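Hi W.,

Here's what went into the run:
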Amino acid sequence: IPKKDGIFFIGIVVYVVMFFLPWTHEIKILNVSLLAWGGALLFLLAPITGIILTLIDSTDR
Amino acid sequence: MKFIEVTIIIFYILFCILLGIWAQKRISTSDSGVDNYYAAGRNVGTVANSLAILAALGSGGSFMAGPGSVWQLGIPFLTWMTVGSIVGFALASILVARPLRNSRKVTVPEFLNDRYGGNKIIKIAVPIVIILGSGMYLMSQMKAGGLITSYVTGLSYEWGLVVIALVFILYVSMGGMLAVTWTNLLQGSLMILITLSLFTACIIHLPTSWMDFFKESATRNPTLGTVGTTVPIVGYLGAFVTWATAVCITPHLVMRIFTSTDARSAKLSLNISMLIYGILMLGLTFLTAPFIGTFGEAVLQNYASDMWLLLIAESMFGPIMMGIIAAGIMAAVMSSTDSLLLAISSAVAYDLYKGVINPKANQKKTLFMSTVVTWIIGIVVMVLALNPPEYLVVLYTVQ
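Here's what came out:
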C-alpha cells in the first residue's frame, strides 16, 4: 500500500478514535455535541482527501 | 394527486423507457455487446459516473427518511452511521479501485474468480451470495418504491409497485448497464436538483438566523444534539464500522468501477460522488431536519416519519415543484433498484450460465439470456414484494 494512502487510512482511524473519546460527548456547539460535529466534518474531509490523493498519484496517469 | 404532478411523473417514466430503447439499439449494433450490456462499453466519464454512483447509493430512504431519522435518532448517531459509507468509499477508492478497473472484468464474481485462480467453489458460491443478498435488498427497495409511487400517484400500494417495477425491469432488460448509467445520470441530476431546491426554500423560510433557528430546534428536541439518548455510544461505532465496510462492497456499486474509462477516473468518480452525497446529507441534517420541529407533535403524529420531508416540501412549494420532487423521489428509488436488478441478473446470466453451465455461449445467446433472466428475477421479486417478510421492513427504513 503506498505510504501516503497508508497515512490516510491511519489518519481516519486516529480521527475516529479522537472523536469517540468521552470529552467530546459533553462539549456542545449550538446545542449539538462535538462528537456529531466531528462526524459531520468527516463528510467533507474524507472525499476531499481522496480526491487530492488521486490527483497527486502519478501511477494512474 | 393533481394533474400537473402526475404529468411530470409520466414524462419522467417515458424518458427512462426511451433511454432503455436507445441503449438497446446501441448494444444490438455493437461488436462488443457484452461489454456494453454489463460495463456500458467502459467509457463512462468521471462526471457521468459520479452522478451514477450518487444515484445508485442514494436510495429513497436516504432522502425520504433522512430528516425524520435525524429528528428521531439524533444528529450524533445519524452522522456517524452515514459517514461510514463515505469513509468506506474513500478508502476503497485508494486501496482497491485500481486493480478492480484494470482487471477488465465485467462482474464481481468474474474478478474474484480470476483473482483466486478459477476456484470452482468461488465460481458458484459468489454469484449465489450476490443473488441472495442483493435479492433481499432489491425486495425491500421495491417495497419502498411501491409505497412512494402509491403516495405520489394516488394508486394503491399493489399498483404503485407494479408500475415502478415494470418501468425499471423494462429498461434494464433492454439496455443493461448502458441504460442504467444514462437513467442514473438523469436520476442523480434530479436528486441534486430537488435537494438543492429544498435547501434554497429552507434558507428563504428561515424565521431567524440559521444559528438561532438550529439552536432553538436542538433545545426543543434534546435528542437532536445529545449523545447516547437513543442508541448507546458503542452502537455509533458499530454503525460506522458496518457502513464503512459493507456499503462500498455491494456488487451494484462495485460494477460502476468497471464502467470507468480508466482507474484514475474510477477513483475520482467514487470520491466526487461521495463529496456530493456528503454535502446533500449535511444539508438534510443541519438545514432541513430542524424544520420538522415547526409542525408540532400533534401534526407529526398523524404521519409516518418517512413522510415528514414531504410535509416540509408541501409547506414551501407549489404543484409544479412538488411534481418534480415526487419524480425525484421515485428516481432515488429506481436508481438503486435498477442497479440491484442488473447485479443479480448478471450473477445468473453471466456468472452462472456463461461462467459455469454453458461457457461456450456466444454473445447473442448470453445477451438473450440476460434479458430473459432480468424479466424473471424482476417479476419474482416484485411478486414477493407484494407481501414481503416482516424483517425486511428494517432494511428499507434504514437506507
